[in-house]
Write a structure and sequence with these properties.
The protein is α/β, with parallel strands linked by helices. It has helices at about 15-25, 25-35, 65, 85-95, 105-120, 135-145, 160-170, 175-185, 195, 200-215, 230-240, 300-315, 375-385, 400-405; strands at about 5-10, 35-45, 60, 75, 100, 125, 150-155, 225, 245-255, 255-265, 280-285, 290-300, 340-350, 360-365, 370-375, 390-395, 410. The chain has three domains: about 5-125, NAD(P)-binding Rossmann-like Domain (Rossmann fold, 3-Layer(aba) Sandwich); about 135-295, Dihydrodipicolinate Reductase, domain 2 (2-Layer Sandwich); about 340-410, Alpha-Beta Plaits (2-Layer Sandwich), CATH 3.30.70. Strands 7, 8, 9, 10, 11, 12, 13, 14, 15, 16 and 17 form an eleven-stranded mixed beta sheet that branches. The protein has a six-stranded parallel beta sheet with strand order 3-2-1-4-5-6, with helices on both faces. The chain binds NADP nicotinamide-adenine-dinucleotide phosphate. The site of NADP nicotinamide-adenine-dinucleotide phosphate has 24 residues, from helix 1.
Length: about 400
């Protein structure tokens, strides 16, 4: 029987999960591929660390040793940072190997170059694990895009931020205390900037945009805000209104323009993200034939992420992944909201006595906090006039919830 030889770059959470899953699911892999899958080599940085790896596997910190293997069908990359990763993967492609990556930062920056290079060398690139861990969002989008036109994609893409917001609400903790707990549980890094300032979700959003719409917006024009401005008091006020803060990435295409934002947003009970708690991720896709679908599941962790990598392994070995749906999309259906449409906002620091003609008052939550209706442009004008201290968009069908009086507040 033929053998598929795999090298795994990195033996941390993801790399070890992939290694173990190739062993634990050897029969299933053999069944679907008709070949045995074998790990031929593992790349690590620290050769002194003890690892649970079979003796016949090459363990090295020199990538050239891996490139020199007599057979190298697939290179799975699960290390960190843009370099040397990007260089390693270009070398692997030139050597004729399929590549699979879990590294969203590298792929958001260099995905297009890798895909083009792979196409010219007739190999495939798998990157399911770069977005929403174990949730098969990329494969689902590819499948949908065979005929559907996608209008809007929304996602809770950073499990650490979602965990912190959940802890703050459920246990009435401060941001600092919830972050400390996330670090103790291994969900957040010692330096949590990438997660709590929204960079991690931003990279994933750019990858999703390329899949859904064939291109990404200019990075400079994307609103990126993390969760560090969300206080326990804000969360409590929102809860009284039947609203929950979620860190949401949204991408939509209006005409030829792609709009994207990654920021704290409020959702009511009728929104599918309302019950997405802890480290879970979720992705909501709106497209013209099927309508709205929501995928929810573990966004990170050893085996959920390994699952995404292993699914890619099957696809690349069958050579089924191509650049299709990554760069060639010409049609999309229009996203749901237009820039000058009225939307709902929770706003702080604005007095009804201001009689501001730009906005419509919907409900008063506290002396300081109200729900208003205004367009995005009007909100921006208000902020420029320094008439409000902070504001958060409410998405979903919250108007109906207010009308049904599911929330306790003074409806104006
Ligand atoms: N953790 C998750 O749940 C998750 C989910 C989705 C995607 N990802 C992405 O997957 C990648 C790996 O994440 P992880 O959590 O598995 O990281 P990790 O636990 O920190 O492991 C990183 C591994 O990479 C090795 N490494 C780092 N730099 C290297 C270099 N220059 N040369 C050779 N080896 C190097 C390390 O070697 P040593 O062991 O010798 O230190 C370690 O084995 C990241 O890009 C991450 O964003 C992670």
């Amino acid at each position: 029987m033929s053998v598929i030889k795999v090298a795994i770059l990195g033996f941390g959470t993801v790399g070890e999960g992939v290694y173990k899953t190739i062993h634990s699911h050897a029969q299933e892999l053999e069944g679907v591929l008709g070949s045995k899958v074998e790990v031929a080599a593992v790349l690590i940085r620290n050769k002194q660390k003890k690892r649970n790896i079979d003796e016949d596997v090459l363990i090295t910190s020199d990538f050239n040793e891996i490139l020199s293997l007599p057979q190298l069908d697939v290179v799975v990359e699960a290390i960190v940072d843009k370099e040397p990763t990007f260089t390693f993967l270009k070398q692997a492609i030139r050597r004729g190997s399929h590549i699979i990556t879990a590294n969203k930062e590298m792929f958001a920056h260099h995905g297009n170059e890798l895909l083009e290079l792979a196409e010219s060398h007739k190999v495939s690139v798998g990157f399911e694990a770069t977005v929403a861990g174990g949730i098969p969002v990329i494969q689902t989008l590819r499948q949908l895009l065979n005929v559907n036109r996608v209008g809007t994609v929304q996602g809770i893409l950073n499990g650490t931020s979602n965990f912190i917001l959940t802890e703050m609400r459920e246990k009435k903790q401060s941001f600092a205390a919830a972050l400390r707990l996330a670090q103790e549980k291994g969900y957040a890094e010692a330096d949590p900037t990438n997660d709590v300032e929204g960079f991690d979700a931003f990279y994933k959003t750019m990858i999703l945009s390329r899949i859904a719409f064939g291109k990404e917006p200019n990075w400079q024009n994307v609103e990126r805000e993390g969760i560090t401005s969300i206080t326990r008091e804000l969360i409590e006020t929102a809860e009284k209104l039947g609203l929950r803060f979620k860190h949401i990435a949204s991408i939509s295409k209006i005409g030829s323009q792609i709009n994207a934002a990654v920021k704290p947003t409020l959702v009511g009970k009728s929104h599918p993200f309302y019950g997405v708690e802890g480290v879970e991720n979720a992705v909501n896709v709106h497209s013209d034939i099927v309508g709205r679908i929501t995928l929810q599941g573990p966004g990170a962790g050893m085996f959920p992420t390994a699952s995404a990598v292993i699914e890619d392994l099957v696809y690349v070995c069958q050579n089924q992944l191509s650049n299709k749906n990554f760069t060639n999309i010409t049609e999309a259906c229009d996203g749901e909201k237009k820039g000058n449409e009225k939307e709902l906002w929770l706003i702080q620091g604005l007095s009804k006595n201001d009689n501001n003609p730009l906005i419509t008052w919907v409900a008063q939550a506290t002396d300081e906090t109200a729900i208003i209706q205004a367009s995005r442009e009007e909100i921006e004008k208000l902020i420029n006039q320094q008439k409000a201290t902070c504001y958060f968009q409410i998405i979903g069908e919250y108007e109906k919830e207010i009308k049904n009086k599911e929330v306790t507040l003074a409806v104006l």
